[in-house]
Amino acid sequence: MKIQISLFYFYHIPNLITTMQPMYRTILVCILFCIFISGTAQSLSKNKRMLDPQPPGMVLIKSGSIEFNQLLANDSIIDDPLYRQGASFSSFWMDKHEVTNAMYREFVVWVRDSIIRERLADPNLGDNELFKIDQDEYGDPIPPYLDWSQKIPWKNGSDEELAAIESLFYMDPISGEKRMDEKQLLFTFEWFDSYTALKYGRLLSTDKAASIRITKDTAYFDTNGAIVTETIERPLSSRSDFIHTYIIPIFPDEYCWITDFRNSNNSMLVRNYFTHTDYNEYPVVGVSWHQAMAYCQWRTMMFRKGNAKTGIDLSEEFRLPTEGEWEYAARAGNNKARYPWQKEDAAFCQSCFVGNFKPGVGDYTSDGALTTSRKMNYQPNAYGLFDMAGNVSEWTASAYFEAGHSMASDINPFITYRASQSDPDHLKQKVVRGGSWKDVSQQIRSDLRGYAHQDAAHSFVGFRCVKTVVDPRKQ
């Protein structure tokens, strides 16, 4: 019926226009033109909505190029252009500041509540079927998932429900306080390795697939409830080979303040840095590379859930920046910049500092902070990014090899290596960048590389997220 009406207007409107008086003809043409423009605008608006808007808390790093080794060459005895290497980058979004304790604590609380909801729905524990949805709106069975609209009965639940909740807590034998059992805070997720899938996926339907061996990370609980992590090596057989499963303990290592500094009394920070609200806006530390990756996956999941019905392009995930992206963003595209603030030193004057680092021998406080500093406490760089030098070093997605940039492409360079459980430690190093509050000014330069073991957690290493830009108009 709709098509018939459309065809009627298509064939008869021209005839109506030609038979009308000039004044009415002009009015009708104007009305039709306005309708056409309105429809076109709505169509364009809808298409625009499909592209990625600015994620909360992020700034746009537009595409450009940079020379990596120029500063190192100029600082050395040999200033040889052959040692210099450059690269170009696509646009990406980047957190304007490092992930804070408050931001990471949202992740911890979500994991806590999801575990409690699972136990409340478990017939052997809480035995409340309302906490899981296993039917669609038509009553047909579907894979069960948690119902987050159901409130957790912290105080007024049944005996079974309260027991299920209490199973995540314990009584401290010294203080007598009820504490959350941090070891139970496990985040299970699947990660699709799109980089490797794009590289080898096209060969699945060819004879070459059997000759390609892939490594697949998997994790599960054994009969005793312990986490078993394995890396399986086998011939490529299907796209599921690019899906990796991880079970990550996500609570930060609060004891890093003691293990990082021998014979140092930092017990106050152990007790308060992550949990006390006064430290909400300070960068989270004590997180490993795997924990940072887990946070990125959770943030992607929350972003997609919140925008599922908006039409926004959700194809790109939140992730850690590559080493090259991090340096390009830190130097704000300036080949000659030693520091993010475009100056040759780390102070405006003898007592005016532009970043959080170690100004002198035994001196951590002249820059205004003993350890970490509050987010956005110093001026941003030209791209609007805060603390790209000092405060905390930052995890990147890149594997660490001494050859560095010379191994990578000159367009969107990325050196990746997914270490297996049996690999030696030197293959489990990841690049960290930016220097930290414990480093002297020479060690927080934008061109200097650092590394840390992927399973290590330190009081001077944090992270920030990036997200690849989809919209070609932002390139």
Give the topology, please:
Blueprint: H1 2-19, H2 22-50, E1 58-61, E2 64-67, H3 70-75, E3 86-89, E4 92-95, H4 101-121, E5 132-135, E6 141-146, H5 159-166, E7 169-171, E8 178-180, E9 186-192, H6 194-200, E10 213-221, E11 227-235, E12 243-249, H7 256-259, H8 267-272, H9 289-306, E13 318-319, H10 323-330, E14 347-349, E15 352-353, E16 393-399, E17 429-433, E18 449-453, E19 461-462, E20 466-468
Parallel strand pairs: 16-19
Antiparallel strand pairs: 1-4, 2-3, 4-20, 5-6, 7-8, 9-12, 10-11, 13-20, 14-15, 16-17, 17-18
Structure description:
By secondary structure, the protein is an alpha+beta fold. It folds into 3 domains: about 1-50; about 60-100 and about 315-475, paralog of FGE (formylglycine-generating enzyme) (Alpha-Beta Complex); about 105-295, no CATH class. The protein has 10 helices and 20 strands. Strands 1-4-20-13 form a 4-stranded antiparallel beta sheet. A 4-stranded mixed beta sheet has the order 18-17-16-19. A hairpin with a 5-residue loop joins strand 10 and strand 11. It is globular. The two termini are about 45 Å apart.
Number of domains: 3
- What's the number of helices? 10
Separation of the first and last Cα atoms: 44 Å
Average pLDDT level: 87
Radius of gyration: 28 Å
CATH topology of the largest domain: paralog of FGE (formylglycine-generating enzyme)
The residue ranges in which pLDDT falls below 50 over 5 or more consecutive positions are: 1-11, 43-48, 76-82
CATH homologous superfamily identity of the largest domain: paralog of FGE (formylglycine-generating enzyme)
Taken from the alpha-carbon principal axes, the silhouette is globular
Structural class: alpha+beta
Succession of helices and strands: HHEEHEEHEEHEEEHEEEHHHEHEEEEEEE
